[in-house]
Amino acid sequence: MYKRKLTASSFVRKSKLIIGLDLTAEMAGKNEAAIKVEKERLEKEALRIISLTAEHAVAFKINRHLILPVGLFDGIPRIIKAIHDAGITAIADVKLNDIGNTNKTIAKYYFDAGFDALIVNPLVGMEGGLDSVFEMALNRKRGIITLCYMSHPGAREGYGLYVSPDGKKKPEPFYHHFARIARKWDTDGVIVGATYPEIITEVREVLGSEIPILSPGVGAQGGDARAAIDAGADFVIVVRSIIEAADPAAAAAQFAAETR
Questions:
Q1: What CATH code is carried by the domain that includes residue 139?
Q2: For this structure, is 141 an active site residue?
């Protein structure tokens, strides 16, 4: 299972840090030659950050920020190869969220490109939603990570709603329901924002110890790595505070140290 790979990497590297490569580009109004230059710049910058920071990371998370401009079957496989060459894994932060046939096709593309795990939205449900994706991940020995409570302020408007799954039981927070689903589905992890350490603790109580919690929002969004780990997170995800740092290696080393 993918979660075992994360745990193994964490043990070897003495770190609980996942680095997000949310690099951005400006493509609007540029001609073909200029777009090519920008794509090459992005890829080169991603490879630079990987080379500088990989020793401190247990995985890299790649969002559409990088996938769309660089190309899923162009620059992304080379970036993933660099991550694999460093001995760690690549997570596609795509928050998959559609009907089953569409999800299956999209997941196949990401797995074919080399990704080791996908982040998906459990809201669409299993039957006719995520069942084909879980089956594909199992067959390919890849991972599935589900959303539970995101890191931005507006997360409470959705993930914080109270629901009664069967219309009979006492309503509970949506994130409790998503944590129970994660246990039922035996996911490789759940996403809970580091900006909400109290919710991390609640989710940990619902999840038990078998499923890891990955906490984004550390650094630029205000989340604290040590507080997230103390609250029950297994890994923290840091993006801008590393990739925009004057010294990404030093920044990554500092965040990794905070998780020990």
A1: 3.20.20.70
A2: no
